[in-house]
Design brief:
The protein is α+β, with helices and mostly antiparallel strands. The protein contains 17 helices and five strands. β3 and β4 form a beta hairpin. It is elongated and about 105 Å long.
């Protein structure tokens, strides 16, 4: 039997050298990857299909305060039990779909910073070998500071807008409290419709600031008793676009700004300012539109007495499908008939009580009225402070000057009601 000839050592040498070179390159590559992973300013990791940690860098390991070596071989649920309820659906989605999950926010405390919530923008991607998922790669970026700035800016903007809408009551006292009652009705409708929480939040905020644009309408038009002529009505109709423009300049969420812009649009295109049709009107605006009409009819106005909720229900039912969203109308009527929405027909507020009902002249002021004036002066001061902060983040100088003009006008209006020589009550 003839034995197979074996290659001599000279023939093996090139093959061994090639293998050695490839191995050296592989080790060098792994070393570079390890260095990059451990020194990267973001959290990096890799888990197997059982969510067991195979690799993790120090940034990601620091989330629970442990060391890298102590986390290898443990599951993510064991290492991060508080965060796992947020993480598990994301990890499972990668396994189920073999698709990357990009940029999901995960929020929780860090072991090294107890008592403070951190935010991580987390991306997960499937690691494939021969068409099969062998594990999941992890990239996590700590965006806590960014989110904190965003929240601070949002809170400041909300505070500014709340103050401005409160000041609208000084200029238009007969609709004082209207915005809050519209919000109450609109939110009840949105919840009954089963809207997503984000839409309900947009409806609430949009309803509370839907008349923000009235801040640019002349005071004599807003507060004059009696019906307005067509030219004056055209001025009033500008408030939807004006409110939208204000929100655009302070970079307010588009979903809320659209509610402010569209709350006077009607399904048949007869509304304003853009004569939108049907589904062109966002659902939030369709809800606020019905709530706005109902509240206006149920409440007192200088040119008429309150019409009552039955008249309001008749109005929206006759316009259902033509002017107003039918589903919104049906829910609104059902809520009113069930007594789940109630409106005081003589709704008023601090600024409404400062103006006489007959001709708008100042009336004899009570100690409570004087307190209300002092409170409104404080609101103006707070608004001026908010403008100073917001102005630092915007280059639109003309816009902020316009707002300051409105504040000066509001102060003058208050001085007409209570001359500066009047001593406010001591607290």
């Amino acid at each position: 039997m003839k034995l197979t000839e074996q290659p001599n050592s000279d023939e093996l040498a090139p093959h061994k050298r090639r293998l050695a070179s490839e191995r050296h390159t592989e080790l060098e590559t792994l070393s570079i990857l390890d260095t990059l992973q451990m020194s990267a300013p973001v959290g990096l990791g890799y888990v197997d299909c059982d969510f067991r940690i195979i690799r993790v860098n120090s940034i990601l390991a620091a989330v629970n305060g442990g060391k890298v070596v102590d986390q290898i071989g443990r599951t993510v649920a064991e290492v991060l039990p508080e965060l796992w309820p947020q993480l598990e659906p994301m990890y499972q989605r990668v396994l189920d779909t073999a698709q990357t999950v990009i940029g999901d926010d995960v929020a929780g405390e860090m072991a090294g910073d107890p008592g403070h919530v951190h935010n991580w923008q987390t991306s997960l991607y499937p690691v494939m070998v021969d068409g099969e998922i062998t594990g999941i790669g992890i990239v996590a970026v700590d965006i806590t500071d960014q989110r904190r700035v965003e929240r601070s800016r949002a809170e400041r903007t909300r505070s500014l807008l709340a103050a401005l809408t409160a000041l609208t009551e000084v200029r238009d006292p007969y609709t004082a409290g209207h915005r809050d009652r519209v919000a109450e009705i609109a939110v009840a409708i949105a919840r009954e419709l089963g809207c997503d929480p984000s839409i309900i939040e947009d409806v609430d905020l949009g309803a509370r600031i839907h008349d923000l644009g009235k801040a640019v309408i002349p005071t004599e038009v807003l507060s004059r008793p009696g019906r307005l002529d067509e030219a004056e009505m055209n001025l009033v109709r500008r408030h939807a676009q004006a409110g939208f423009d204000i929100l655009q300049k302070v970079h307010f969420p588009a979903s809320v700004a659209d509610i402010v812009l569209q709350h006077h649009e009607r399904l048949d295109g007869s509304g304003y300012p853009n004569h939108l049709l049907g589904s062109e009107i966002c659902i939030g605006a369709r809800i606020v539109a019905v709530a706005d009409v109902v509240e206006a009819m149920v409440s007192h106005r200088p040119y008429r007495a309150a019409l009552g909720w039955q008249a309001a229900m008749t109005e929206i039912q006759e316009g259902a499908g033509r002017l107003y969203d039918r589903d919104v109308v049906d829910v609104c009527v059902r809520l009113f008939r069930a007594g789940r929405i109630e409106i005081e027909s003589e709704g008023s507020s601090r600024s409404a009580s400062l103006v006489a009902e007959n001709d708008g002249r100042p009336k004899t002021l009570s100690p409570k009225d004087l307190e209300d004036v002092e409170s409104l002066h404080q609101t103006i001061e707070d608004t001026e402070a908010q403008i100073a902060l917001a102005e630092a983040e915007s280059s639109s100088w003309e816009f902020w000057e316009d707002l300051r003009d409105l504040l000066r006008e509001a102060k003058a209006k208050l001085d007409e009601i209570v001359p500066p020589s009047t001593e406010p009550p001591s607290s």
